[in-house]
Amino acid sequence: MLGTRMGITPRLSDFGIYDCKNGPSPMKRGASVASKLSDEELRKLVEPGERPTLKTIARISGLAVPTVSRALGDANDIGLDTKELVHRIADEIGYVPNRAGVRLRTGRTNVISLVIPAEGDVLNNASKLTSSIAEELRGTPFHLNVLPWFPDEDPLRPIKYIVETRSADAVIFNMTEPEDKRVAYLLKQDFPFATHGRTKWSAQHAFYDYDNSAFMRLALRRLAARGRKNILTVLPPLNQNYAQDMMLGLEDESQLLKLNYRISHNVNGDRSADEIRHWIAHRLEQSPEIDAVICTSSKAAIAAIVAIEKHGLELGTDIDVYGKEVVPILKMFRKDIIVELEDIVAAGRHLATAVVQRLREPGLTPLQHLEIPTD
């Protein structure tokens, strides 16, 4: 490692790189030498008090400023070695993009907003969805911003705010409805987005969804194979698209298998655990023939088990609970519960990839995926 002269910042020529200010800099030679420098040597090439900029990275790397900018933007015409070098230098010298400058140059913010409901259920999919999207965006110029919306407000409000203020380049959201007004608005505005869930306009936009109709059919078949005949279901709010998909699977498969079912009209999976537990306890009291409960969230499944055991029934013998979860925890709670795991990590990765593609190559067909549970 080359030392630093007392009180003097190292010159580029100390490392075999010519200072562009004082003479020509052979780009290939400069980049080659820069790639061999240690992290400490790269940091020493920043002038005292200098705020690292694109010009700083260009000076250190021996590359042109436009090349550095395009490498940081992950442009397709920039080689992988060049991108890795530029990102390494940027990381080591503490380069932080000036968002105002980026917006002036490109018209973009390099921000992707995830709009999700503000809720306190620690077993829901929000945290895993957020972390998987953020992980997929690592190494890209895009950053994730999470914007909550509240049950008592119009879900379109945060979406309109993002579009009207141009505070993000694209948006991701969930809890879709068949005729989702957020989707209708974004399609009309031609604003990049992807949804966790489908809508009636799914052919026109990027999405990742779980086949909840198939989930319900599979659940009923497995319960029927265990001799269950009278099924109680705790569904999501019925205005949401995935709840309606569950209803379709429930109606069709129960008729085919000659099963009886009840739907939780007075309570849904978004209600509190106490409300769900009280409702299930009431139904078990009123309808002792119930021999299975299908729950579409971990919270509802745990509430159901508490109600069942308080009622004096033995899980797995007198009655079954079939639960869908995004965090693998239910089997640790009770080994006799029947569980279907929805892959939220894959959903987040897909959604992140989908909006980045929409931003970089808007002419391509939107990325879409339907996860189908199987026997």
Structure commentary:
43% of the residues lie in helices and 15% in strands. It is built from 15 helices and eleven strands. It has a six-stranded parallel β-sheet with strand order 2-1-3-4-5-11, with helices on both faces. Strand 3, helix 9 and strand 4 form a beta-alpha-beta unit. Helix 3 packs across helix 4. The longest helix is centred in the middle third of the chain and has 17 residues.
Task: Write the SSE topology.
Blueprint: H1 27-35, H2 39-44, H3 54-61, H4 65-72, H5 80-93, H6 99-106, E1 111-117, H7 126-137, E2 143-149, H8 156-165, E3 170-174, H9 181-189, E4 193-196, E5 206-210, H10 212-225, E6 230-234, H11 241-257, E7 260-263, H12 273-286, E8 292-295, H13 298-310, E9 320-325, H14 330-333, E10 338-341, H15 344-360, E11 368-371
Helix pairs in contact: 3-4, 3-5, 7-15, 8-9, 10-11, 12-13
Short description:
It is built from 15 helices and 11 strands.
Judging from the principal axes of the Cα atoms, what is the shape?
Answer: elongated
The proportion of residues forming helix, as a percent range, comes to 40-55%
H/E topology pattern: HHHHHHEHEHEHEEHEHEHEHEHEHE
Largest pleated sheet: 6 strands, parallel
- Radius of gyration computed on alpha carbons: 27 Å
Number of beta strands: 11
- Percent of sequence in beta strands: 5-15%
SS element count, helices: 15
| CA(first)-CA(last) distance | 60 Å
Structure classification: alpha/beta
Strand line-up across the major sheet: 2-1-3-4-5-11
Residue windows where pLDDT falls under 50 for at least 5 positions: 1-9, 15-27
Mean pLDDT: 86
